[in-house]
Amino acid sequence: MAGGAPVGDGDYNAEPNVVPLVDIMLVLLIIFIITVPVATKAVKLTLPTNFNEPTETKPEDVSLSVDFTGTVYWQDSPISLEKLGQYAAAEAVKDPQPEVHIRADKRVKYSYIANVLQVLQRVSLLKVAFIAEPPHADD
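The structure assignment produced for this chain is given below.
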């Protein structure tokens, strides 16, 4: 018989060759052993549970308010962002600098608050605090 044709029934191997399969499984096992601890690592933090601590307001502190429409109020008087920059620059040169308390409507767009913060940062007014009301029992 020519061409390497099988001569008898004993020449065929009916058992699967599992050596390559075992090699692949061992490589995958090693990869998983290395990568799983890295993927599950997280920074463990204990976050504060107190939502709002009472803020002591001093007479020299500046009160800024931003309503839903983006109107800025300096000590309860509506002003433009240009005027805000002028008023904030006058406060920034004081020693010590007064603290700016920002009260914002909870529905106000973030861009309005960002504009106010940008003006305060531009004139180097550093002490800024956001004022929030504590949660009510009926909420």
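Interim note for the steering committee: The mean pLDDT is 80. Helices lie at 19-39, 81-92, 110-122.
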